[in-house]
Amino acid sequence: MTEKHSFGNEPITCHAFNRDRTQVAISSSSNQVHIYALKGGAWEKVYELNEHASRVTSIDWAAQSNRIVTCAADRNAYVWQRDSAGDWKPTLVILRINRAATCVAWSPDENKFAVGSGARLISVCYFEEQNDWWVSKHIKKPIRSTVTCLAWHPNNVLLAAGSSDFKCRVFSTYIKDIDKKPDATPWGTKMPFAELMLELNTSNDCGGGWVHGVSFSPSGNKLAWVAHDSSISVADPANNPIPVTLNTDFLPFRCVQFVNENSIAVAGFDYCPMLFSCNRGINFVRKLDQSEKKEAGKLSALQKFKTIDNKAAVDGSETVLNTIHQNAISQLSIHSGSRDQVTKLCTTGIDGLLVIWDLKGLEQSMAAMRV
Are the C-beta atoms of residues 202 and 167 closer than 8 Å to each other? Predict the structure, then answer.
């Protein structure tokens, strides 16, 4: 039902899978990115990307072109591509920022990517063939704080951005020589570069808190985001000009992902991913983690010393939780299925775990429990 893989005690800051999910790129709160390959049911490290000078903050792996983009607190981004010998070679991206890069995401067509930063701007990067390098154009106004998360619309032009100024915005990233002229959408019709299509002030309209995660629905007609006040919000401009918000009793969520047009998965400081429906309003469906409470036994002397070293606790029974993840979940991503019907999700956390959740298996088990 669920697959649990441990990558040590270091927190996993970010991860990204290749197209067939046989390899995963992981950064464990350092300036390095480790690439693991799935061999015999276990993950084996096969490559190490060493170019950043500070902590890597985000990774994205392009499925079709097989290129990896990374960004870090050193204010740089690199595009990694395998050469004929099988080695990953980096290309520096000209971001032109003076603060840390915080998040990065490839566009659906993989011909450009966006980088959010603490410089209160978004760098939209594309490859300039004449000069053989990656350059960027900036989206600045009206961003007033650090950009914390990004999500692309399926049309390859619209980009949603959440920031720590309590606002979620949708921008146009149309570049004449790169993109085809986009069709009209519920978010707007005219889409010149850096055009603000939508701005939502979460402190007034939809609760309060800096935005941790944002996601477009498979059709691109809905936008969901989660904030630090434990709220979930969904905007559907085609049917309702006012976003719908649910203020939950859970701890804050750090990430959100549509699993189909009317369902979203969230995860964060409650250590457990959850499903919500967003067809008519936002309603809690269930927690994905159905683990039973663990019974803590007596610890040997060696186990006690390990517990003190890893968890700063003498008695291991106080730190054993009834969830698979033993600390906050840092990232939630699609593992299997299509965007309009996700079958498996992947979470990574501060506990160094990577967990794959089988949504179909969970549905079947829940149906059996109800019978």
Answer: yes
Name the burial class of residue 245, with classes exposed (0-12), middle (13-18) and buried (19+) by CB atoms within 10 angstroms of its CB.
buried
* Higher pLDDT pick, 207 / 136: 136
Phi/psi region, residue 271 (left: phi>0; alpha: psi -120 to 50; beta: rest), is left
pLDDT value of position 311: 59
Which tokens hold the place of 243? 């976003």
In the three-class reduction of DSSP (H, G, I as helix; E, B as strand; rest coil), residue 46 is classed as: strand
CA distances from residue 303 to 9, 10, 206, 308 in whole angstroms, order as listed:
15, 18, 47, 9
pLDDT in tens, 156-201: 999 999 999 999 999 999 999 899 999 999 999 999 999 999 998 7
What is the Cα–Cα distance from 23 to 39, expressed in whole angstroms?
10
pTM reported for the whole predicted model: 0.90
**Cβ–Cβ < 8 Å for 174, 182:** yes
| The one-letter amino acid at 126 | Y
Find, among 153, 186, 183, 184, the residue nearest to 171 by Cα. 153
29 CB contacts (<8 Å, ≥6 apart)? Answer: 10, 11, 12, 13, 55
- 253/272 Cα distance (integer angstroms): 10
Omega cis (within 30) before 11? no
Residue (of 236, 206, 204) closest to 219 by Cα position: 236
